């Protein structure tokens, strides 16, 4: 067990996978000699060589498409999108090629696409987006969103071993802001299993990614006011741990969904609809969502702070729902 | 366009090889003619696409490959499937959406592949398979396997971003991919002059740093010769080639296309360049195909087509419950890769080598 940052845990997971399995290779922009825009793969080219840490031309369609081609040949590519936002340039390859391959043909596509996503870096509309809902809405893909260093490594290793295309959303704000204990060696965090980060009896709060940390702060604050919030870190969005959601709602009777992605058409709507359909008898209040404003991610710190959910807005929603 | 500039002997093709080329071209034509008939009888769900007029390209190029090479065909390349051993029955079952078809009713028409024959399934997004073909080649290079990927696309697809990205990528990484551009001069109804200001699509290759050449897409020997040379270059580690196979559209984009956009005289001109007629004439003029051999071949094909159709028609429609299954790979992918990485040496031994031969080197 070592204490490391979220970013170091991702590096550790990649290194572990590459040492264990010669089929695993990395492909992306600036990942080899330069070590990646965020330095996740710093030093990898020295250990694994340029054939396993492939510096690709600036061409997201070619990068993702070639990873798919290598995957159907039995390799286990891990793609780095330099920023998750750029995946739009590879959209056909992700949603029409990789996602539909098994259903149409019985061929498996064991590719992991690393998606450095999310705001808080004052990076504006093209380097901050949370687009996980697009992929949750695409049958054939798995979508994971680790919030802790331990899960960052464990979900990455699970994703690499999985025979399906996995969209691995790594939050840029967490890279160097979050540290935690990470088990040594090989382990997997199971895809599709949520984790209860804090137990509480008054209200269930479902969230993932960066928002797990803000939700825990808000829950701590609410506890000071006598409201006990159960914080559930979903960790995987596709498949989603619906049993954990239903079990938590059954315990508390109230559900709050918090995500950083914009509200309309977001994953929160799907969670709310699931709770309404399957947990109606347990409910003792409306299902409430806290999410970003329905706009592109603004660049100015003042505007971005107004755009994002924060501890304050989450705490306010907790108070209001608890009082319902 | 189909002239006598090619020479079967120079290409190392004997009488049996030439008959093989003709057989596969004729089989493609016969199968597609039958499918068109079935389509108008209402037996083919959805739209109906054929490779009418493209037979010389599909058959000629695919015939230039070795057994362990790989193909990423498009929707006009049934001949490539046949050359690699896909059964006519599978083709019919696929078009009829039957339970035992390659996609088991999940996808239709030419949207299928076959792992055991190294054929990547095509999707509707034009040129989307080109980047995937690059990755297949990249995997071979990484594993030291001397295999080549043949990647087909059309004149319309040549305008897309993925085509550009893939060819540039293949050039930059020196991948063993041969890009076969089937220029029938119309993308659905849009003439190639409206696709680009470039006069020769093959010239694009210069921008990617590898050779580009134009060949007669209605001359199977010309296509075979160009593909063979390109495949050999790729196998030697000399990188990609773009082959523009130029021909004239003989049939609509799909059966829903009335071809009203074709200029006057086009159909007659195209008819005169029918790749099958041209090749039969070539063989007959050189005494490489007797009258008896020709009629035997036709009879054999007719019987095969009848049998394949009957076999497909006898197979059931999918169970409705199949609609919700198989979205995800259940985790047994291990058994189903095109080739496993640790098998590179074994493959070379299988192929008759010692296992120590060099694959294609990464630049």
Topology:
The complex is a heterodimer of chains A (324) and B (363).
Chain A: E1 2-5, H1 6-20, E2 24-28, H2 44-48, E3 53-55, H3 60-72, E4 76-80, H4 91-98, H5 101-105, E5 112-117, H6 132-136, E6 142-144, H7 149-161, E7 166-171, H8 174-177, E8 179-182, E9 195-198, E10 203-207, H9 210-224, E11 229-233, E12 236-238, H10 242-252, E13 255-262, H11 267-278, E14 288-292, H12 301-307, H13 311-323
Parallel strand pairs in A: 2-3, 2-4, 4-5, 5-7, 6-7, 10-11, 10-13, 13-14
Antiparallel strand pairs in A: 1-8, 6-12, 9-11
Helix pairs in contact in A: 1-7, 3-4, 9-13, 10-11
Chain B: H1 15-40, H2 55-62, E1 70-72, H3 78-83, H4 88-95, H5 129-142, E2 149-154, H6 161-172, E3 177-183, E4 186-187, E5 190-191, H7 192-195, H8 204-208, E6 212-216, H9 220-235, E7 241-246, H10 266-272, H11 275-285, H12 291-314, H13 344-350
Parallel strand pairs in B: 1-2, 2-3, 3-7, 6-7
Antiparallel strand pairs in B: 4-5
Helix pairs in contact in B: 1-2, 1-11, 1-12, 2-9, 4-12, 5-6
Overall mean pLDDT of chain A: 97
Straight-line distance between termini of chain A? 43 Å
Strand order of the largest sheet of chain B: 1-2-3-7-6
> Rounded to an integer, what's the Rg of chain A over CA atoms?
19 Å
The top level CATH class name of the largest domain in chain A: Alpha Beta
Number of helices of chain B: 13
* Helix/strand order of chain B, N-terminal first: HHEHHHEHEEEHHEHEHHHH
CATH architecture grouping of the largest domain in chain A: 3-Layer(aba) Sandwich
Which bin fits the share of residues in helices of chain A? 25-40%
Average pLDDT score of chain B: 92
Binned strand content of chain A: 15-25%
Rg of chain B (CA only): 20 Å
Please, what is the CATH homologous superfamily of chain B? Answer: Thiamin diphosphate (ThDP)-binding fold, Pyr/PP domains
Largest interface pair:
A-B, 47 and 52 residues
């Amino acid at each position: 067990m070592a204490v490391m940052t979220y970013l170091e845990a991702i590096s550790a997971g990649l290194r572990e996978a590459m040492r264990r399995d010669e089929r695993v290779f990395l492909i992306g922009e600036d990942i080899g000699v330069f070590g990646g825009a965020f330095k996740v793969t710093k030093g990898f080219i020295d250990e694994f060589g340029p054939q396993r840490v492939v510096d690709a031309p600036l061409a997201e369609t070619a990068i993702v498409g070639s990873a798919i081609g290598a995957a159907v040949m039995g390799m286990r590519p891990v793609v780095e999108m330099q920023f998750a936002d750029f995946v739009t340039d590879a959209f056909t390859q992700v949603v029409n090629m990789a996602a539909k391959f098994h259903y149409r043909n019985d061929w498996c596509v064991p590719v992991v696409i690393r998606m450095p996503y999310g705001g808080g870096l004052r990076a504006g509309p093209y380097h901050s987006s949370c687009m996980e809902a697009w992929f949750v809405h695409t049958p054939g893909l798995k979508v994971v969103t680790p919030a802790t260093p331990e899960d960052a490594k464990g979900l990455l290793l699970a994703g690499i071993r999985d025979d399906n295309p996995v969209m691995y959303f790594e939050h840029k704000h967490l890279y160097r802001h979050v540290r935690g204990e990470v088990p040594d060696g090989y382990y997997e965090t199971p895809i599709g299993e949520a984790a209860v980060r804090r137990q509480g009896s008054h209200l269930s709060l479902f969230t993932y990614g960066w928002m797990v940390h803000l939700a825990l702060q808000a829950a701590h604050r609410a506890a000071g006011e006598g409201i006990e919030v159960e914080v559930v870190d979903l960790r995987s969005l596709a498949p989603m741990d619906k049993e954990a959601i239903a079990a938590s709602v059954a315990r508390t009777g109230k559900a709050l969904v918090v995500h950083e992605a914009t509200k309309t058409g977001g994953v929160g709507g799907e969670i709310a609809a699931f709770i309404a359909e399957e947990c109606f008898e347990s409910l003792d209040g409306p299902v409430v969502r806290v999410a970003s404003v329905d706009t592109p991610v603004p660049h100015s710190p003042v505007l971005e702070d107004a755009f994002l959910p924060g501890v304050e807005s989450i705490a306010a929603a907790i108070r209001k729902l608890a009082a319902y | 366009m189909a002239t006598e500039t090619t020479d079967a002997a120079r290409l190392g093709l004997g009488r049996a090889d030439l008959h093989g080329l003709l057989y596969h071209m004729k089989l493609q034509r016969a199968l597609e003619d039958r499918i068109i008939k079935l389509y108008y009888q209402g037996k083919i769900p959805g739209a109906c696409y054929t490779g009418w007029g493209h037979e010389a390209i599909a058959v000629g190029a695919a015939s230039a490959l070795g057994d362990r090479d790989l193909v990423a065909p498009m929707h006009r390349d049934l001949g490539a499937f046949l050359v690699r051993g896909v059964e006519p029955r599978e083709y019919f079952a696929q078009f009829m959406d039957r339970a035992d078809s390659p996609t088991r009713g999940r996808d239709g028409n030419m949207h299928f592949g076959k792992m055991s024959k190294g054929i990547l399934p095509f999707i509707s997004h034009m040129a989307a398979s080109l980047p995937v073909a690059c990755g297949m080649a990249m995997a071979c290079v990484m594993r030291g396997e001397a295999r080549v990927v043949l990647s087909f696309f059309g004149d319309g697809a040549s305008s897309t971003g993925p085509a550009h990205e893939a060819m540039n990528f293949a050039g930059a990484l020196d991948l063993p991919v041969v890009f076969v551009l089937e220029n029938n001069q119309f993308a659905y109804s849009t003439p190639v002059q409206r696709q680009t200001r470039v006069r020769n699509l093959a010239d694009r290759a210069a921008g990617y740093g590898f050779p580009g050449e134009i060949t007669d897409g209605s001359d199977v020997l010309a296509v075979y010769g160009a593909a063979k040379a390109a495949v050999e270059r790729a196998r030697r580690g000399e990188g990609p080639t773009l082959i523009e196979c130029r021909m004239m559209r003989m049939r609509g984009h799909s059966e829903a296309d009335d071809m009203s956009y074709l200029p006057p005289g086009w159909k007659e001109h195209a008819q005169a360049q029918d790749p099958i007629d041209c090749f039969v004439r070539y063989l007959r003029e050189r005494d490489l195909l007797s009258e008896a051999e020709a009629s035997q071949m036709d009879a054999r094909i007719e019987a095969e087509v009848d049998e394949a159709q009957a076999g497909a028609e006898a197979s059931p429609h999918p169970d409705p419950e199949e609609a919700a299954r198989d979205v995800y790979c259940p985790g047994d992918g291990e058994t189903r890769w095109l080739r496993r990485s640790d098998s590179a040496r074994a493959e070379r031994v299988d192929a008759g080598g010692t296992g120590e031969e060099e694959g294609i080197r990464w630049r």
